[in-house]
Amino acid sequence: MAAEFIKLYPKNPDPRRIEHIVKALREGAVIIYPTDTIYGMGCDIHNARAVERVARIKGIKPAKNDFSFICYDLSHIADYARVSNQAFKLMKSVLPGPFTFILQASGNVPKLLNTNKKTVGIRVPDNDIPRQIVHVLGNPIITTSIRDEDEIIEYSTDPELIFEKFQNQVDIIVDGGYGGNVASTIVDATDDDFSVIRQGLGELVL
Description:
- The chain is α/β, with parallel strands linked by helices.
- Helices cover 28% and strands 21% of the residues.
- It contains 6 helices and 11 strands.
- It has helices spanning 15-26, 48-58, 85-94, 108-113, 128-137, 159-166, and strands at 4-7, 31-33, 40-42, 68-70, 81-82, 99-105, 119-123, 141-145, 172-175, 185-188, 195-198.
- Strands 1, 2, 3, 4, 5, 6, 7, 8, 9, 10 and 11 form an 11-stranded mixed sheet that branches.
- It is globular, with a radius of gyration of 16 Å.
């Protein structure tokens, strides 16, 4: 069955449609959604089967995944990561924004994702669509990028083309308008010697 194609506006996402998406996530749906950078694919972090599906669609083993978590804000960050005061201060100063912070994972992460990874990526995107989804859901969703096979364009930006490509692999595709084609800036904050390990959209002054 083809995925649902749901139009939402980043400035004021329709609460009823957000509720509909959240209900689907709780039932194990895999969704594609806009962020403040590129389109992402994800699911409820508490649904192991859905996490496995995302890994399968990406062509990776779940235990080897590099999924990040999309959070509404930093209020529950300690549930998933160990954050120093310095790292928290830095994150608070630039989030919501186009950054992924790599942090030491808390004991919850291996259980959630069936992985031995000691780190987790944390995203708080400056886009109300994914933030409202996780706010209503009550916990983060995993996020991984939607890549394009095109040699020139690394990431798919047109929601209709994304729908054409993924309509038979995922359950919901959220059209939040054209996405960007520059990914987030990845910051290693596993200790207080912060470093940028991938320069993306976000500019960070360390």
